[in-house]
Amino acid sequence: PMPWDAAVLEGHRSIAWVAVNSSKPERARVPQCFMVFSTKEWADWKQWGKREVERDLLSEFLDTLHKVLGQRPPKPCFVLSGRWGNNTETVLTGERPSGEFPVRAIGFR
């Protein structure tokens, strides 16, 4: 189990926010499920392909968990990336979305 339900990763080069999705009420605790949102800068860095995001952001996330927990987490049994950023940013800021990018977090102001 994680020592938190959600976390903002201030100063991380690629991860902005992580939620333990399986910590929500009425959810199965095992296996643990996570939602990981990249930083805007990382998402905008290049035109990402779906598999690239899954590979690279997963690697960053597992490395971060290793540092935080002091042990290597088990290999995930399922990984899926999505394109939420445009809608999220528009709803929260009212600004017109820019670019096409997978798994993007809004800028932390």
Arrangement of strands in the largest sheet: 1-2-3
The residue ranges in which pLDDT falls below 50 over 5 or more consecutive positions are 100-109
The main pleated sheet reads as: 3 strands, antiparallel
- Share of helix, binned: 25-40%
Q: What is the overall number of helices?
A: 3
Categorize the overall geometry.
globular
Describe the structure.
With 109 residues, the protein is α+β, with helices and mostly antiparallel strands. Helix content is 31%, strand content 13%. The chain contains three helices and three strands, in the order E-E-E-H-H-H. The longest helix has 20 residues, at 50-69. The chain starts with 5 loop residues before the first strand and ends in a 16-residue tail after the last helix. 18% of the residues are buried. Residues 100-109 have low confidence and may be disordered.
Secondary-structure blueprint:
Elements: E1 6-8, E2 15-20, E3 34-38, H1 40-44, H2 50-69, H3 85-93
Antiparallel strand pairs: 1-2, 2-3
Brief digest:
The chain is α+β, with helices and mostly antiparallel strands.
Descriptors for this entry?
109 residues; alpha+beta; 31% helix
